[in-house]
Amino acid sequence: MTMKATLVREIGAGFVAEDVHIAAPIGREVLVDVKASGLCHTDLTASRNNIGYEPPMVLGHEVAGVVSAVGPDVTEFAPGDHVVGCLVQSCGHCEACLTGRTFQCIHPEETLRSAADAPRITDAAGQPVAQAFGLGGFAQQALIHENQLVKVNDAVPFPQAALLGCGVVTGAGAVINTANTKPGDTVVIIGAGGVGLNAINGAITAGASTIIAVDVADDKLEKAKHFGATHTVNSAKVDAVAAVKEITGGLGAHSVFDFVGIPAVTASGLEMVRMGGGLYLIGIIDPTAVLPLVTVGLIGTQKRIEGVYMGSTTPKRDIPLYADLYLQGRFNLDDLMSREIALDGVEAGYELLKDPTVTRVVITSGLS
Length: 368
Hints:
Layout: E1 2-8, E2 16-22, E3 29-38, H1 41-48, E4 57-58, E5 62-70, E6 82-85, H2 95-98, E7 121-123, E8 130-131, E9 141-145, E10 149-151, H3 158-178, E11 186-190, H4 194-206, E12 210-215, H5 218-227, E13 231-234, H6 240-247, E14 253-258, H7 263-272, E15 273-281, H8 295-301, E16 304-307, H9 315-327, E17 337-342, H10 346-352, E18 360-365
Parallel strand pairs: 4-8, 11-12, 11-14, 12-13, 14-15, 15-16, 17-18
Antiparallel strand pairs: 1-2, 1-4, 2-7, 3-5, 3-9, 3-18, 5-6, 6-10
Helix pairs in contact: 3-4, 3-9, 6-7
């Protein structure tokens, strides 16, 4: 069937809306009528750099919608279900999947069609269109393997639901799952953007008693307070390490989460960690960045540094949890929403995200 989608035709050439053809579901595929699709910086990076997907391609990995049809082998979903997509691609049967580490799956390709199958999406000329991360949410419909979908309560609005699939699980999951934050812990959130705000959500859920947000923008820090940060530090105005040490009585934090990824910021984050605590790396600006370390210092202080992928998330467990907490008024998704745009407005939507007062932009119109 024919549908509208926003494609990347050439790396670095931006986004363009056009008609494409989407196939009927086969095997364990689910056809989803997209109702909301969030704009994430990862998709912008993929549109400007070759990260393994060849144009033409359809991006968009924060997807929420309604099941329209299912393949013959689907057991978990039925038409009418409200679902959220997640870019954690898992086979369900490797050692990592069987031990609850779906985010470390060694056979993610099993969520995609094989080379022997017809492509999921083709353009007007009949040429295959790559579907990034197995999702391709910048479109009116998406064909997604059932392992990448999660059913959520119908009461969750689609724009808020879309955010659950990436920004929410990445931020909250880093605090809850990766760092195993406990009641009474002190945490530092470096970078109070959309993912950082979800880390604050996660810190509150985990019971952290002191939540310190660090950023260079006062408006972001004000929003961090609104989300529940107990303290804020503007690192453009004061020595952030000294400020964190003062707040924590000289001890430092149990956990520090770096959502920025600049080497100088990462180095300062390590200084904020108390003895036996951890620095968790989530954000990245320069993929070639190097962090110099004095290893004896790590041994003496027993600090650890850990990279975090997708908040160590098990999507089918975590996404429904956050959705239910939202409906209970215990997890703030509403204030993440800044702008709603049309399907053909992706390029302008990413321009909006340059404004530090804009947290998240979501496609909600032009989808039907």
